[in-house]
Amino acid sequence: MSEIVGHKTFSIGDGTFRHEPITREEADAIWNAAKQQEQKRAEDMPTEQDAIRQMRDAHQRLKELGWRDAIYCPKDGSVFEVLEAGSSGIHDCFYTGKWPDGTWWIPAEGDLWPSRPILFRPKSSVQREEQNNG
Question: Are residues 59 and 97 in the same domain?
Answer without folding.
Answer: no
